[in-house]
Design brief:
Blueprint lengths: L4 H20 L27
């Protein structure tokens, strides 16, 4: 059974997009520890809570 022309065009477009992505995708990098947020509010602990 042969696919319709529109189906073949969609499959070829999907395949070409995947091949193009495989060639131009950025290199994977190893992520370091998460950066701390600037001006983050520290958690309230029992020692630092107001009395």
């Amino acid at each position: 059974m042969r696919p319709r022309r529109s189906t073949a065009i969609l499959m070829a477009t999907w395949g070409a997009t995947f091949v193009l992505y495989a060639f131009v995708k950025p290199d994977t990098t190893v992520r370091g520890p998460a950066a701390t947020l600037v001006n983050a509010i520290p958690a309230v602990t029992a020692e630092s809570s107001p009395q």
